[in-house]
């Protein structure tokens, strides 16, 4: 999985993060919720941060361990950040996505630790069916894939499926209610609103991808297994390749054959990663290139200012590539 190059836009994995205290502590704000009355939430990376902000709103101060532009999978945690994690009222992270975060969380002695992966059902992709990309990756990028997917081999990119992300949102809402019972009613209301928006987004994807000329899409980052499975698509990953390296002649031939057979039109790459591989493949196969964002972070290069905007850009790009009718 070419996960390494994505940080801001991607995602991999993982999935939800709440955070506030760690980084806010640096800014002179209170290191814990007591002084300003706000709940300090520390999120591991953007998809978790977004949930905390949407559900907590004015009652929380959210920080993130992974700043925009930093690759989440390669993140290194400082001793200061580990100490700040210990001061957080709530820690929200996705276990196995970021090994350094897993270690820091384990050492933090945090009061309320929420692993987003426990709030929904995690699946391994590639054994059969829709997600061809993970299948190839397991063989071709074994070292990277295993570190990225964790011991059970589960795909961490749960946030790219709006229905699964909604399940995680409910769990995060419940965790905030428990940590700050005085504002439980507001957290519940905000959770319901967010789940409603995610349910609407799920419907947009279902309707938008129902009738397409092809069901196969090709991507340099096989982050979209859950999305493909949810909407009846086939993800074909360019496996076994470093994001910056060019595909082997054999893989180019294979992708070309798949594209021809399945009428695929487009090679997708990530906003923040080099498009060299995608462009090389496209030139050799006569395919077009476009962006499919794994939403691991938001930067000024992202096709949208937040989760919903970027997901709608992904939907539009998929519809164009798949020949939506």
How would you explain this protein's 3D organization?
By secondary structure, the chain is of the alpha/beta class. Helix 7 runs antiparallel to helix 8 (184-208). Residues 1-32 and 127-151 have low confidence and may be disordered. It is 44% helix and 10% strand. The strands form two sheets. Strands 2-1-3-4 form a four-stranded parallel sheet, sandwiched between helices.
Order of helices and strands: HEHEHEHEHHHHEHEHEHEH
- From the spread of the alpha carbons, the general shape counts as globular
The main sheet comes to:
4 strands, parallel
The count of β-strands is: 8
Oligomer: single chain
User: What is the mean predicted local confidence, pLDDT?
Assistant: 81
Uncertain stretches of 5 or more adjacent residues: 1-32, 127-151
State the share of residues found in helices, binned by percent: 40-55%
Total of helices: 12
What would you report as the Rg, rounded to the nearest angstrom?
19 Å
Task: Walk across the major sheet and give the strand order.
Answer: 2-1-3-4
- Strand fraction equals 5-15%
Terminus-to-terminus distance = 31 Å
In short:
The protein has 325 residues and is of the alpha/beta class. The protein has twelve helices and eight strands. It has helices at residues 21-26, 46-56, 79-87, 99-108, 132-140, 142-149, 162-179, 184-208, 225-230, 249-262, 276-285, 307-322; strands spanning 39-43, 60-64, 90-93, 113-115, 216-219, 234-237, 266-269, 288-291.
